[in-house]
Write a structure and sequence with these properties.
The chain is α/β, with parallel strands linked by helices. The protein has one domain (2-211): Glycerol-3-phosphate (1)-acyltransferase (3-Layer(aba) Sandwich), CATH 3.40.1130.10. Helix content is 45%, strand content 20%.
Length: 212
């Protein structure tokens, strides 16, 4: 019974509720040239955003083809995985903490087939607004550009969760913002790698501020 609820009833219920919610929201692109570039970009790339900014972005970019999401193998992940599939995404089950190597290998295979993936920059547990190294390591191995994204809403709730999750009020307007692709060299020393981490963190924070 619990499996039925997690795989079918709850995801379909949430999908219906979220779809109605999303349909009440307006959208403005802060950087239409960069967004046009993303939507027309052939080949592999990695979309990334802070965990607290995923709610509207997952809906907004749902029509991009060959997008894969990494979702944890937990019971909560069962619901999220099914919900992601209903929204049109392909799903890879794995964790940034446990069994991280198989997850990374699966993502690398997708990119080497010229697919596209979504990786949450600060992961599923944080720390908040700190880029996890796995994202940049995968980008360096595959040569896939990293494209930073963010959004904000005119009227919103900010949850008291670790990620300060942003939920737009129904019937409000959202602003979507995207940055230029970042390339990570395959061979990079530790100091340069840390600089790339800080660069991506700065860009994601700046995109969030510009979207307010």
């Amino acid at each position: 019974m619990k499996k039925f609820l997690n795989n079918y009833f709850i995801p379909y219920l949430l999908f219906g509720l979220f779809r109605i919610w999303y349909l009440t929201l307006g959208a403005t692109s802060k950087n239409p040239d960069a967004e046009k570039h993303i939507r027309g970009l052939p080949g592999k790339y990695i979309l990334t955003m802070w965990h607290g900014r995923i709610f509207y972005l997952f809906y907004y970019y749902r029509e991009l083809t060959d997008l894969y999401l990494l979702i944890s193998p937990s019971q909560d992940g069962d619901i999220l995985a099914r919900l992601g599939q209903l929204m049109g995404y392909s799903v890879i089950r794995g964790s940034s903490f446990k069994k991280a190597v198989p997850s990374a290998r699966s993502l690398i295979k997708v990119l080497r087939r010229e697919g596209r993936i979504v990786i949450i920059a600060d992961g599923s547990r944080g720390p908040r607004c700190k880029v996890q190294p796995g994202l940049l390591q995968i980008a360096g191995i595959t040569g896939a550009p990293v494209i930073p994204l963010s959004f904000d809403a005119r009227r919103k709730w900010i949850l008291k969760s670790w990620d300060r999750f942003v939920l737009p009020f129904p019937f409000t307007r959202c602003t979507v913002n995207s940055g230029d692709p970042i390339q990570i060299p395959r061979r990079i020393d530790e100091e340069s790698f840390q600089q790339k981490q800080m660069e991506l963190e700065s860009i994601l924070n700046q995109l969030a501020l510009e979207s307010e």
